[in-house]
Design a protein that fits this description.
This protein has 220 residues and is of the alpha+beta class. Helices cover 16% and strands 48% of the residues. The chain contains 2 helices and 13 strands, in the order E-E-E-H-E-E-E-E-E-E-E-E-E-E-H. The strands form 2 sheets. A 6-stranded antiparallel beta barrel has the order 1-2-3-6-5-4. A hairpin with an 8-residue loop joins strand 11 and strand 12. The longest helix is centred in the C-terminal third of the chain and has 29 residues, at 191-219. The protein is elongated.
């Protein structure tokens, strides 16, 4: 399979999803459809829809939007969209992709997720095992410890997948809510770890959407 190349050059570099990365397609009249990146070139993406679907109409192809998560938030792309093969409607090529918007929601998407995290308070060096209430690419909401005050700096090690190296970095307590939970904003985190965290969040969202679709199917 060869990538189709657009005759119109891309005026400036555009953030594109990686090969094998999961994305979502906004299709008029069909909602959000999950897909996976098969090939990535300088001016085209080949995508494989991961659910059964009908062949899209020319209007649907023209208005189609590709959405994925990056370190900056959720990125939405448009371009010249054609079916890769008339006999394989699940294969779609996006030529000359361009960014139409980045949804940052104060920089990053936030999800509810209880994950173990080790916290080291900079003030006294105390090590405390806690867990997250929610996470985003820009910070955490911690269940504790109650020894942390607003303004305290800390180092954290967040386990997003058991047996895999934790996401680590430094942060600062910016808020304590009425339940005593500590909102931590990242001050320092590597690009690699931020990407890992954003992809974890995106995967959680994808699984949540899938559970919702399966629930609708059972009710139907």
């Amino acid at each position: 399979m060869k990538i189709l190349r657009s005759k119109q050059p891309v005026s400036e570099p555009v953030a594109l999803p990686d090969v094998s990365e999961l994305v979502h397609l906004a299709v008029r009249g069909a909602g959000w459809i999950p897909a996976k990146v098969l090939e990535r070139g300088p001016d085209a993406l080949v995508l494989a829809v991961t659910v059964r679907m009908r062949k899209l109409t020319p209007e649907q192809l023209e208005k189609l939007i590709v959405e994925f998560s990056s370190a900056r938030g959720r990125v939405r792309l448009r371009g010249t969209v054609v079916s890769q093969d008339a006999g394989s409607p699940e294969l779609i090529t996006l030529g000359a992709p361009r960014s139409v918007e980045v949804l940052q929601e104060r920089e990053y998407v936030r999800i509810r997720s209880a994950r173990p995290v080790l916290v080291y308070a900079a003030r006294d060096g105390m090590r405390v095992q806690s867990f997250t209430v929610d996470v985003s690419g820009g910070g955490l909401l911690l269940a504790g410890p109650d020894t942390l005050a607003v303004g305290d700096e800390l180092t954290f090690q967040l386990t997003i997948t058991p047996g895999v190296t934790p996401v680590s970095g430094k942060g600062r307590v910016v808020r304590i809510d009425p339940q005593g939970r500590r909102a931590v904003e990242f001050d320092s985190i590597s690009d690699l770890d931020r990407r890992r965290l954003v992809r974890f969040i995106f995967e959680c969202q994808r699984n949540e959407r899938r559970r919702g679709l399966e629930g609708d199917d059972h009710r139907g």
